[in-house]
Every structure is written in C-alpha cells, then in structure tokens.
C-alpha cells in the first residue's frame, strides 16, 4: 500500500475519513446500527459469534445458550459478554443462584487493549547485529525482515467487539469502572407469590428486580433526553437449574412445568421496550427426555 | 485419580459415588471413611440405610467409636417420638447446628449413606440448595455420599451430579473381586479430568488400584493411530532425502543479492522508501472461496 512519506512517529490509523451521518440515531458507545435492518446492535464479546448471528446482538432481544455438559464453555461465553459490557461502558446486571455474582465478575477475561503493530524501529536495528540464523530467516521476502509482525486479522482496526486473553483475569480497576447490579438468589428473601401464579417465587423476584433496575436506570426511555443513554446487559447463568427452585431438570412431569417459559415471556416483554440485552444459559441436557433410546 | 480422592489431596468439595444394583458402592464409601479417620479428621455419618450393627461389622469397633454416628436408620421420618435423626433434618440450619456442636479445628467430613433416601422424601431443589450451601460454607470440607443411580430418573441423577466436584461411577469388573471406577473430577479452574481405573478392596478397607488410570475418551489400548500421511502411497515422490535437502539449501536463488548488499539494503537509509503494511479486508482474499466478495 503506497503511502506518502510521513514522519516516523505517525500513528497507524488508516484514514481520517469519517462517514457523515444524517440520521438522528442515538449513538451509544459500544453499539452500532446493523447493516441489514438498521437495528441497534451490541457485540456479544466473541467476534466470531457476532459474525454468526448477523453482526451482533440486537438491543431488546434475549440470547439463549444451551449449556454444555460441564458448563465450561457456556460460562465462558457469558463472561465474554459481561467483559464486553465493561469495556464499552455499559451497565451490567448479573443474577445467579449458584455462584455469587461478584465471584463471577472477578473471573472476567482480560482484554487485549494495546495496539498490535506497535514495534519501534529500534527492534529493526537490533536484529541486524543478531546471529546468523535471523538473517537467513527470510530467504525470499528478506526486505520485510525488519518489519514488525502484523496480524492479518483485523484486530486493531475494529472498534466494535474486542479481543480477550482468557488466561488472564481482568484488572480490578477496569472492572470497577463499570456499574454492576447483582442478584444472588440465596440472599434474596422471596415473598410467596399468589398461589395461582404460573411463576415460581424465584423467577418473579428476578423479573421484578430486572424491571426495577430498568426503571431506575432510565433504560426504558423515561429518562430526560439530557442524560446520556446507555445499554443494560443482563446475564443469567444456569436458569432453570434446581437451585432456582425449579424441578424442570429433575422430573418428567414437573410441578411448575411452565414457570421457566412464563418467565422467558415476561423477560422478553420487559426487554422489548427498553435499551437492554440479555444472555441466559439453560442446562438443557438435564431437561431432555430421560428415556434412553 | 481414585487414590488421590480417597487420600483427600484434591481439596474436598462434594464427592458422589454412583452405584447400581450390579455393584454396591458401600464398601468404597467405607474405605473413604476409614481413610478420613486415619487422617485424623472429624467424620460425621448420616446413616439412613445402614444399621449400627452392620456398620460395626464392616468398619470395626474402634473406628466406630471415633466416628460421629447419627442414627437415621431407626426412625427417619419421625413417626415415633424423639427420633434420633430424621430426613427432614437435612437442611442447612439443622446440619450447621449438628456439625458445629463440637468445636474442632480439624477438617470435617460429612458422609451421607445415601442421597437416594433423601431424594425420595425431600424435593430435589431443596436437596440441591442444601448441598450447594454445604459446598460453599466453611463448616464442612468434604461432603461424601452414595447415590443409587437406578433408583431415580436420569435427569435427577444428572442434576445432583451437576453440582458435584467429583463423581465416581462404580461398576463390576471382569474378574470377581475387581470393580471398575470411572472418575470425573472438576478442578477449581473449571478443567475436567476423567479416568477409568480397576480397583479392588481388601478386607481392611484399603483400596488397591490394579491398573493405571486410562483417560476416558482417548484411544483404547495401543498407542494412538498415526495420522494418515498424505505423502505416502503416491505415484510421485514428495519426500526429500537428506542429501536432496542439503542440495536444496545450497541452491542459489535467482535475483538474490549477496549478503552484504542485503544488509546494506535492509538498513534504513535517508530518503529510502518505507514499506507500510496495514491489514485490510481486501487482503483476506481466500482463493478457494468463490463467494468471498458476495455481500448479502
């Protein structure tokens, strides 16, 4: 790519060209309009998953993940989702019946934030004095020998969706910058719901808590336009497991067979009119029919 | 893997021994109890399915004295007055009062003779909640229990084992005194290790593992089959012998400069051009994908 001679310290940004937007779309950091239908979408944190679901997760929708047998990969996807929210400055809501939400938040993966091609020319000079082998490292493309290794993936140029290093944990300073609401079921006192209610107490308490957070945070559009808008990311790991009080995973004819689906309907209705997005995981391998073929 | 679990080096948690009608896991449970007593731990046993006399017969009198035995066999449902221990006492508040009655600094192991009995009389979500609180709370280091997998629905067994730190499934082996144990252990980091071992239990309740643990799912028996070598079975020769390889290295490529000229060119001089490469979407051209430029 031919480029005019610039000073040595120029940044590696491609161009200064910016698209002029005439629309009055609200611009919230970490979101962008979808190329297909103009809906506002957020990144799930996993860029390949974003590509699979058409660019990203639409705001106001719910993503359901069926857990793998030992709940390792589904938890990882949920953590990526939360980590992406921290980096974009979104608000987080995490509800769990098994581990405390604060414990889950300490295990978020560390983001890869530094620029990829940031090697200084100093390295090039060092390589010349190096041993024989490094000189012969490139026989044919030797003119490129002293250039820093550049990743062919579009890591540095994409602003939507970040990359993470799973082997490291996110720094507490980055994590504490994000506002997180936690719902831990054992600590939540559950008042008994109406006897004919199709919802379990735990699910109705959770739904009420989500509605409360949306209303207080102004995610449902009731906030004055002066206040900057933000997106709420809701993470619900292991919904439907016996720890929520639901015996859907244990019996073929559960006592509250429709509690989980009623909760999901309610959740969808609440989210549709608010600037929030939810990701939940369900241990579906326990809900499958117990009959072995 | 099995021996590490018995010795307690894996750090406790919730251990479930799944057995079936073909092989009872009770002797393995007794060997766990004996090993814990040898390590001088405080062991509480909730015996729903075992009479005290039988236990004395299996474990020996001295062991029984050191064990904190809770007789839940006589009156588990509390039909008579003053039952020693009922199944309804299997909730966190009651268990906490039971376990902290003797203040010791030693680690506490809670052994439950069987979860199956409890699951028959209490709701599974309540049992799961109690087990989760036992796992999280600091009172008990290890919770160990027997689960008869053929007594329950497959999903119920699955839900209980989902909470467990390690699950041991025992089955009869090929020889009469041997049994096979399949261990699935979940580390704190989330890594899962599985192993299948043959073991036998001697009269004094020590477990002897007969074979090396075979990681489940890997190739059976002989060394893993070699990958198919694409350069074999061709009509032309794709491999290089050593001589041929050396000759290839020595060959001087056309248009290649001598080493001095190369290093002279590599040194960035004044006014020479620089190569600026930035990865672009167009650079990811995949020659095999004909629809790469299709924009749907």
Concise overview:
The complex is a heterodimer of chains A (293) and B (296). With 293 residues, chain A is α/β, with parallel strands linked by helices. Helices cover 26% and strands 15% of the residues of chain A.
Q: SSE layout and pairings?
A:
The complex is a heterodimer of chains A (293) and B (296).
Chain A: E1 31-33, E2 40-42, H1 47-52, E3 57-58, E4 62-66, H2 73-88, E5 91-96, H3 101-106, E6 109-111, H4 121-128, H5 132-135, E7 164-169, H6 172-176, E8 180-184, H7 201-217, E9 232-236, H8 259-272, E10 276-282
Parallel strand pairs in A: 4-10, 5-8, 5-9, 9-10
Antiparallel strand pairs in A: 1-2, 2-3, 6-7
Helix pairs in contact in A: 7-8
Chain B: H1 2-7, E1 13-19, H2 26-38, E2 42-47, H3 52-59, H4 61-66, E3 68-71, H5 92-99, E4 108-112, H6 115-121, H7 124-136, E5 142-148, H8 154-163, E6 166-172, E7 179-186, E8 192-201, E9 207-209, H9 242-250, H10 259-266
Parallel strand pairs in B: 1-5, 1-6, 2-3, 2-4, 4-5
Antiparallel strand pairs in B: 6-7, 7-8, 8-9
Helix pairs in contact in B: 7-8
Strand content of chain A: 15-25%
Number of helices of chain B: 10
CATH homologous superfamily descriptor of the largest domain in chain A: P-loop containing nucleotide triphosphate hydrolases
State the total count of DSSP E strands of chain A.
10
- CATH architecture of the largest domain in chain A, by name, is 3-Layer(aba) Sandwich
Low-confidence stretches of chain A: 1-13, 116-135, 152-158
What is the end-to-end distance of chain A? 60 Å
CATH class of the largest domain in chain A: Alpha Beta
Largest sheet of chain B: 9 strands, mixed
Task: Please name the CATH topology of the largest domain in chain A.
Answer: Rossmann fold
Secondary-structure element series of chain A: EEHEEHEHEHHEHEHEHE
């Amino acid at each position: 790519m031919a480029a005019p001679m610039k000073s040595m310290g120029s940044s590696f940004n491609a161009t200064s060209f910016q698209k002029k937007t005439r629309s009055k779309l609200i611009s919230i950091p970490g979101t962008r309009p979808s190329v297909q239908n103009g809906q506002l979408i957020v990144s799930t944190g996993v860029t390949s998953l974003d590509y699979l679901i058409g660019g990203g997760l639409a705001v106001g929708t719910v993503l359901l993940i069926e857990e793998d047998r030992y709940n390792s990969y589904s938890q990882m996807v949920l953590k990526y989702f939360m980590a992406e929210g921290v980096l974009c400055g979104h608000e987080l809501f995490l509800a769990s019946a098994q581990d405390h939400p604060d414990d889950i938040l300490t295990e978020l993966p560390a983001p890869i934030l530094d620029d990829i091609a940031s090697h200084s020319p100093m390295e090039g000079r060092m390589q010349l004095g190096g041993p024989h082998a490094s000189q012969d490292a490139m026989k044919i493309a030797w003119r490129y020998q002293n250039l820093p290794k550049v990743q062919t993936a579009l890591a540095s140029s994409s602003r939507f969706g970040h990359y993470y290093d799973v082997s490291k944990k996110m720094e507490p300073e980055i994590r504490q910058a994000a506002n997180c609401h936690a719902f831990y079921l054992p600590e939540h006192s559950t008042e008994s719901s109406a006897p004919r209610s199709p919802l379990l107490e735990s699910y109705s308490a959770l739904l009420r808590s989500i509605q409360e957070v949306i209303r207080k945070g102004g995610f449902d559009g009731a906030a004055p336009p002066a206040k900057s808008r933000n997106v709420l990311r809701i993470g619900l790991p292991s919904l439907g497991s016996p720890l929520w009080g639901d015996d859907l995973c244990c019996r073929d004819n559960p006592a509250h067979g429709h509690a989980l689906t009623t909760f999901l309907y309610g959740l969808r209705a609440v989210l549709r009119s608010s600037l929030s997005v939810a990701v939940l995981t369900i241990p579906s391998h326990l809900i499958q029919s117990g009959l072995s073929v | 893997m099995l021996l590490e679990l018995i010795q307690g080096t894996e750090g406790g948690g919730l251990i479930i021994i799944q057995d079936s009608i073909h092989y009872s896991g009770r002797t393995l449970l007794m060997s766990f109890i004996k090993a814990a007593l040898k390590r001088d731990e405080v062991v509480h046993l909730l015996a729903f399915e075992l009479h005290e006399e039988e236990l004395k017969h299996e474990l020996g009198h001295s062991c029984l004295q050191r064990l904190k035995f809770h007789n839940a066999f006589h009156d588990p449902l509390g039909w008579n007055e003053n039952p020693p221990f009922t199944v309804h006492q299997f909730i966190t508040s009651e268990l906490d009062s039971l376990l902290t009655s003797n203040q010791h600094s030693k680690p506490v192991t809670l052994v439950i003779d069987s979860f199956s009995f409890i699951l028959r009389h209490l709701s599974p979500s309540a049992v799961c909640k109690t087990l989760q609180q036992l796992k999280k709370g600091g009172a008990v280091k290890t919770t160990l229990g027997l689960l008869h997998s053929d007594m329950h629905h497959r999903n119920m067994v699955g839900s209980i084992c989902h909470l467990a730190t390690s699950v041991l499934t025992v089955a009869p082996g090929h020889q009469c005194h041997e049994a096979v144990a399949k261990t699935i252990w979940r580390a704190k980091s989330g890594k899962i290790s599985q192993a299948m071992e043959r073991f036998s239990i001697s009269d004094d309740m020590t477990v002897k593992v007969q074979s090396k643990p075979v990681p489940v799912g890997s190739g059976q028996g002989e060394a893993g089959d070699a990958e198919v070598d694409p350069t074999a079975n061709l009509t032309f020769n794709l491999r290089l012998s050593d001589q041929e390889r050396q000759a290839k290295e020595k060959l001087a490529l056309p248009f290649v400069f001598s080493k001095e000229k190369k290093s002279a060119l590599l040194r960035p001089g004044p006014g020479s051009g620089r190569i600026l490469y930035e990865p672009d979407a167009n650079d990811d051209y995949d020659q095999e994908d004909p629809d790469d430029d299709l924009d749907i």
